[in-house]
Design a protein that fits this description.
The structure holds 2 protein chains of 2 kinds.
Chain A lengths: L2 H21 L2 E6 L9 H16 L3 E6 L6 H12 L4 E4 L5 H10 L4 E5 L8 E6 L1 H15 L4 E6 L4 H17 L4 E6 L6 H13 L4 E4 L5 H9 L3 E4 L12 E7 L2 H13 L6 E4 L6 E4 L7 H16 L9 E2 L5 E3 L7 H5 L15
Parallel strand pairs in A: 1-2, 1-3, 3-4, 4-5, 5-11, 6-7, 6-8, 8-9, 9-10
Antiparallel strand pairs in A: 10-12, 13-14
Chain B lengths: L1 E5 L5 H25 L4 H9 L1 H4 L3 H27 L7 H19 L7 H27 L3 H21 L35 H19 L1 H11 L1 H6 L4 H25 L13 H11 L4 H25 L3 H18 L1 H4 E5 L6
Antiparallel strand pairs in B: 1-2
Helix pairs in contact in B: 1-2, 1-14, 2-13, 4-8, 4-9, 4-11, 4-12, 4-13, 5-6, 5-7, 5-11, 5-12, 6-7, 6-11, 8-9, 8-11, 8-13, 12-13
The chains are: A alpha/beta, B mainly alpha.
Membrane topology (chain B): Multi-pass membrane protein
Pfam family, one (chain B): BPD_transp_2
Subcellular location (chain B): Cell membrane
Chain lengths: ~350, ~350
């Protein structure tokens, strides 16, 4: 057998092998921080996983591991998925940032997508949603509907994403109701029904008749329902089981279009590392149905606000705005840039209390 | 008729056999659980116990067993000394956190200085952090007779708040865009608890765990202090007459377990975890209690039990991703292990008799 023939055979085998590989299922892994039944954050990521399966049918295989602790455990789970042949891995919590970067360095052929982080690599993209756009609409409804003028807010961790939400909700509540006051409790958890329920009860006892939450369970909704005369908003997921009262609307994370698009990109070989931060316009942030418990005029205003944000006509952080200490932040008509928003670590003027350090 | 008859002396054979029986029972009932969930029980059990050790990717999982098992063994070893003497430190989780904070802080103070003494300093500070945190319940017990179970447990929650505060404030990465969490020590060469031989999972925490096991074995079998611990646990009055100083023993046991838990935290933050973050602790301090009992409070037993627990964690994650088993099922499976161990423990002290009771 001549050398060229040998090479030709080798090339042919290789060609066949890659051909077979291309026909192989695309394997997509998901690492979840909570249980898929949390009814909030992880639930929505899992819905998007199911949407990927629905979209591509036999062409994809999805795997997931739930309740994965941030740190070395997540690193092991990601490595294990990569070893098992995953082509694309979504890591859906901020705390998976460094582990994702570590594992990605070991598996250059596997693509990684990290939610809400800021570190990227050739095979690591980041993506997040502009939840603060939804918070603006919440703030509007909350400010219009509160009678005690006290709005309770359950914060998870004092990180930029959460602070952005508080600011956005406050600015828009204040716009329609100058007397409004925010009471904020930091739960230091993303998902802990008992703690979240306690926080909601404390806020209600302090006179709050609106509860906003940046935690993922439905426990605050249940607490509000029990107390009566308190309204809430679904967080991350629609939480429609508490509609029409106390839940009057919701912010829904819709990851499905993004997950489908990224999976498609891997199948087509067009995947590149990007940074995506989408809001209401592209459909990554959804506003759940506003129930009839909300007066019709408030509902119309809220929907108009939603349309204005979606079309890009209005930005929730538009000046004039001052920081909590009274210093100027945005001049009349000026719009906050993404860099400042991404690292936001200050309250706007009018909010009381300090961001915990 | 079946009945239990008290043994005149606890059976040594049974004491050794019950952990194995418990593992077997867990496999059988766990398999049933998985079958009910619609999975092939044999396949599930094999995935959990076989894959990490002998599966296709064992080259990766075996080192991970060391990484996952080392903090468990290190903490459990310290706890077992106290448990043997009837001193109940339930707050190892808090001591683990404080060790990590002290250790990481010692390094971050000198960042970005590169020097050989930084890592040894971290080891000392990490151990000290855990030791001091354990001294709080220790001194309160000795001075005021407080219950160390409650105090040490409550201090876990204090330590968690302290951890949040450190991640958001003092130790926050100045280049982290306002996000919580310290600098990553994996990227700070002098502070990085790297693998001693790459790809083996062998970091200094693993070495420390093995040393602790040997040290504890010698202490318990050869040293006067070990004798004092055992006597105090088995016959407190005899120990008193035998000249054991109970206050000193309390401080020694709590201090040692705090020290080891602190070291475990320090090795973890400097190596596998890398950062002080709000969610740094993942329950090693509590799982170590199970490990200590599963290992019969014996050094060698604890070594094996730590390995077994690590195996169920790693295998459990594999089973989740490959078979789609829910995380809750894996947790139930791990819970069964402790349940069966405690349930079967009765056989150590009692004999199972068949047939009617003899007429006395």
């Amino acid at each position: 057998m001549s050398f060229t023939k040998l090479m030709a055979t080798a090339a042919l085998t290789l060609g066949l092998a890659t051909g077979a590989f291309a026909q192989d299922k695309t394997k997509v892994g998901f690492v979840f921080v909570g249980p898929v039944g949390d009814g909030g954050w992880t639930y929505e990521h899992n819905q998007a996983r199911l949407a990927v399966e629905e979209e591509f049918g036999d062409q994809v295989e999805t795997v997931f591991v739930e309740s994965v602790a941030e740190g070395p455990d997540s690193e092991r789970v990601m490595t294990q998925m990569a070893l098992d042949g995953a082509d694309l891995i979504f890591t859906t919590s901020f705390g998976y940032m460094d582990p994702t970067i570590n594992v990605a360095a070991k598996f250059p052929d596997v693509k990684f997508e990290h939610a809400t982080g800021y570190k990227r690599a050739d095979n690591v993209s980041t993506y997040s949603a502009r939840f603060y756009e939804g918070r603006a609409i919440q703030g509007h409804i909350a400010g219009s509907m509160t009678e005690s003028n006290i709005i309770g807010y359950i914060g998870s961790f004092p990180i930029p994403e959460v602070i952005r939400g508080i600011n956005s909700a406050f600015i828009h509540a204040k716009k329609v109701n100058p007397d409004v006051e925010f009471k904020i409790i930091w739960a230091y958890t993303w998902f802990d029904p008992a703690k979240e329920a306690d926080a909601a009860k404390v806020l209600i006892e302090q006179g709050a008749d609106v509860i906003l939450q940046h935690t993922d369970s439905t426990a605050p909704q249940a607490a509000a329902q029990e107390a009566g005369d308190v309204i809430t908003f679904g967080q991350a997921s629609d939480m429609f089981q508490y509609a029409p009262l106390p839940r009057v609307s919701s912010i829904i994370d819709d990851w499905a279009p993004y997950y489908i698009a990224r999976t498609k990109a891997v199948m087509d070989g067009t995947w590149t590392s990007t940074d995506t931060w989408d809001g209401i316009g592209p459909g990554m942030v959804g506003i759940g149905e506003i129930t009839d418990a909300v007066p019709a005029d408030v509902k119309d205003e809220a929907l108009a606000l939603k349309d204005a944000i979606a079309s890009g006509e209005y930005h929730p952080f538009t000046g004039p705005l001052k920081k909590q200490d009274g210093s100027d932040w945005l001049a009349e008509g000026e719009v906050a840039d993404d860099g400042t928003l991404a690292g936001m670590n200050f309250y706007v003027e009018g909010l009381t209390g300090e961001i915990p350090q | 008729m079946m009945r239990l008859e008290k043994r005149p002396q606890p059976s040594r054979a049974m004491a050794l056999a019950t952990p194995l029986l418990a593992v077997l029972a867990t496999m059988v009932f766990g398999g049933l659980l998985f079958a009910v969930l619609g999975e092939d029980p044999v396949q599930s059990i094999l995935t959990i116990f076989w894959q990490p050790l002998f599966g296709e990717f064992a080259f990766y999982y075996r080192p991970q067993l060391l990484v996952k098992g080392a903090p468990l063994v290190l903490i459990a070893m310290g706890l077992a000394l106290g448990f043997r003497a009837g001193i109940w430190n339930i707050g190892a989780e808090g001591q683990y956190i404080m060790g990590a904070i002290f250790g990481a802080a010692a390094a971050l103070v000198f960042y970005p200085l590169e020097a050989w003494w930084i890592f040894p300093l971290m080891v000392i500070c990490g151990g000290l952090g855990g030791f001091l945190w354990a001294m709080i319940p220790g001194l309160l017990k000795v001075k005021f007779g407080t219950n160390e179970i409650l105090v040490s447990l409550m201090l876990v929650y204090v330590a968690e708040q302290f951890l949040s505060s450190m991640s958001l404030g003092l130790l926050k990465n100045p280049e982290g865009y306002g996000f919580p969490g310290s600098r990553n020590l994996q990227q700070y060469a002098s502070a990085h608890n790297a693998e001693i031989v790459s790809g083996t999972g062998m970091h200094w925490g693993v070495v420390a765990a093995f040393i602790a096991v040997i040290f504890a074995y010698v202490l318990l079998t050869r040293h006067r202090l070990g004798f004092a611990i055992r006597v105090t646990g088995e016959a407190p009055r005899a120990a008193k007459f035998g000249g054991v100083n109970p206050a000193r023993l309390v401080l020694f046991c709590l201090g040692t377990s705090g020290l080891l838990a602190g070291l475990a935290g320090m090795f973890e933050v400097a190596g596998p975890a890398g950062q002080i973050t709000i969610d740094f602790n993942v329950g090693y301090g509590f799982t170590a209690i199970i490990v200590a009992f599963l290992g019969r409070l014996h050094p060698v037993g604890i070594l094996l039990a730590g390995g077994l627990m690590a195996l169920t964690y790693i295998g459990g994650d594999i089973a989740q991703s490959q078979l789609g088993l829910p995380a809750a099922a894996i947790q139930v499976f791990q819970g069964m292990l402790l349940f069966f161990l405690l349930a079967l423990d009765v056989l150590t002290n009692y004999r199972l008799r068949f047939g009617a009771a003899e007429v006395a």
